[in-house]
Amino acid sequence: MAVLIISAILSLLAGIGVFLIATKFLSSNLESVSGNKLKALFSKTSKSKLLGVGIGTVTTAAIQSSGAVSVMVIGFVNASLMTLPQAATIIFGANIGTTITGQIVALGTLGETISTTVIFSTFTFIGACMVMFSKKDIVRKSGGILLGFGLIFVALDMMSSAMAIFTEEESLGVQAFLAAISNPLLLVIIGAVLTAVIQSSSVMTGIAITMVFSGLISLDQGIYLTMGSNIGSCVVAVIAGIGSSTNAKRTALIHLIFNISGVILFMIAGVIMREASHGAVTFGSLFQKMFPNVPSTQLAMFHTFFNVITVIIILPFTNLLVKLVTKILPERKKKPDPDAPKLIYLEEHFLSTPPIAVAQMRKEVLNMAEIALYNFDCAANMLCTLDFADKDTFVRNEEELNFLNREIVRFNVKLSKADVNAADNVFLSTVYHTVSDLERIGDYAENIMEYAQKMQSSNDTFSQDAISEIKEIKSKIDALAESVMLEYSDNDLTLLGNIYDTEDAIDAYSEQITANHITRLDQGLCTPDSGVLFTSFVSDSERIADHFVNVAKSVRSFSKRSKDNTKSLIEA
User: Fold this and answer.
1) d(Cα 65, Cα 183) in Å, to the nearest integer?
2) Which long-range contacts (CB under 8 A, 24 or more apart) does 336-344 make?
3) Rounded Cα distance, 228 and 226, in Å
4) Which of 193, 224, 351, 387 is most exposed by smallest CB count within 10 Å?
């Protein structure tokens, strides 16, 4: 018998291992395929509490990982792109969305012969074939989803078979031991600790469901283990909050308080029911009546019921919860320098959710483009007016551009190693050249500011015609940059023709005003020194335009791949 028990334990561990891999595989592939939808969902965060709950529910149901959603939300809060109330409601919704995994596991245990397990397990073969033999990225990702889904049922069968041994007469000792663990608080603690260890409430819920289905534990025991798993699931968010901003830590604390509050409320309700009925009414007895003869469904439905009711109760107190965590974790006395260079949209936590990180990367590149353009405009104005009131801002921006060039590349290297789809991978490969182009625009703007300083030190000035021409070429480059940033933001290749036309117009105008300035020199309207600086400005402006056009050209590489990927997704 000892050999059978050891064999059963090893089979159980193997089943848990397969379950962990299955949920990870399913989550990563669902995340990749639904990446664009995730970006759209998170862009709609607003002050609407119900919308936040809906976004959290749908996102978690889509990628099958409340932990991933929690980390995403902490990343947004850490990057100051989401408020604490918004983050709180999304986390509330994530708790509802994570119950979908339990429903899937319960589906696999319907029927006396668990026939659905055999049927769904075949998805493993289909998905594996798609992953191994297809060259299309979307087909491989879709195959990965089927493979992960099928492996869940393979793991379920392994765990159920292992637990079946413990239900035999020879294992009465094991049954007696498990039956003795009837204290609700102890069961909650066990569920929390085990979930914290494996870092997956979905896996813990799946184990509890299979144990209830096998008759190894009662439904009430499974219910309290599942309630404990909700508390244990917070460990992912707590780890993500370590080393982050104060608001990110508050977000993790909101997650923890929310889940603990739900467990406390339901444990109190459980005690009241048992005492009022002298032990006749429990959560288990209620759900057995509602869903007779399907123990796995009973536990899965309780898990969903538990999270939905907790959200309904706590949602109206969201603002009070935010005030509470703000008092528990007050703002640090030493505030960071607001003028210090920093990434606005990128944050380390986004690396765990590549589709979101890619969307944030695009925003960060556009932010860098706006800073580079501002510095060009600022330098051109200095050249025209010899007014250096904005010099400090210019210098800070130049430091910011150098910082962004380094940090975006550093982040891009890490993101490129993550599991990104083919279209996003092509986009990331262009980022290296794009940020280099933008950094060079900042360098040319710095040259132009130095020309203005030379003009000031030599008490030299440009003629009114020269100043008008400087303003005109600045206006043309502004229009070019605006089109480039719009094209880059929207992947709109239809703007490329207009961008090329604008570049040609800038080149032609550069030749024209250079000739005009030579004429002014011949007529003595400008000094030789100012003439050299003017032609240098025109040359630098042309190069700035070229670098903006290089950014526009990069869109051709990833835009076509992205559209092909979207088309394949629609067809699939």
Assistant:
1) 29
2) 339/396, 341/396, 341/399, 341/400, 341/402, 341/403, 341/404, 342/403, 343/79, 343/404, 343/407, 343/408, 343/411, 344/79, 344/80
3) 5
4) 387
Q: Where are the alpha helices (DSSP H) in 64-200?
A: 66-78, 84-97, 99-107, 115-121, 123-133, 137-166, 172-180, 184-198
Q: Which residues of the chain have pLDDT under 70?
A: 1-5, 20, 23-47, 62-68, 71, 75, 78-81, 107-117, 119-120, 156-157, 159-179, 199-200, 236-237, 239-244, 332-339, 558-572
**Interatomic CA distance for residues 202 and 191, integer angstroms:** 12
Query: CA 337 to CA 259: how far, in whole Å?
Result: 35
Residue 261 in contact with residue 321, Cβ under 8 Å? no
Q: Which amino acid is at 159?
A: M
CA atoms within 13 A on the CB side of 445: 31
Give the Cα separation of 410 and 198 in Å (integer): 31
Judged on CB neighbours under 10 Å (0-12, 13-18, 19+), 335 is exposed
Let me know if 337 is exposed, middle or buried by CB neighbors in 10 A (0-12, 13-18, 19+): exposed
Whole-structure pTM value: 0.66
Longest Cα–Cα distance in the chain:
111
Tokens at 446, concatenated: 């710095």
Tokens 């150098």 map to which residue? 402
Instruction: Give the Cα separation of 418 and 440 in Å (integer).
Output: 28
List C-alpha distances in Å: 350 to 25, 251, 341: 18, 15, 20
pLDDT at 294: 84
pLDDT of residue 434: 94
CA separation for the pair 14, 19 (Å, rounded): 9
**Angle at which helices 391-416 and 422-457 cross, to 10°:** 160
Cα–Cα distance measured from residue 292 to residue 273, given in angstroms and rounded to the nearest whole number: 20
User: CB 523: neighbour CB atoms within 10 A?
Assistant: 9
pLDDT of residue 144: 82
For 311, the token pair is 């959200």
| Measured distance CA(174)–CA(446) in Å, rounded | 76
Residue 477 tokens, joined: 């480059």
What torsion do the CA atoms of 538, 543, 548, 551 make, to the nearest 10 degrees?
A: 170
Angle, CA of 41, 338 and 90, to the nearest 5°: 20
CA distance 424 to 409: 15
Is residue 180 classed exposed, middle or buried when 0-12, 13-18 and 19+ CB atoms within 10 A define those classes? exposed
Contacts of residue 378, Cβ cutoff 8 Å, sequence gap at least 6: 390, 393, 394, 397, 445, 449
Query: Could you report how far apart the first and last alpha carbons of the chain are, in Å?
Result: 50
Cα 517 from chain centre:
53
DSSP 480-543: HHHHHHHHHHHT-GGGHHHHHHHHHHHHHHHHHHHHHHHHHHHTTSS-HHHHHHHHHHHHHHHH
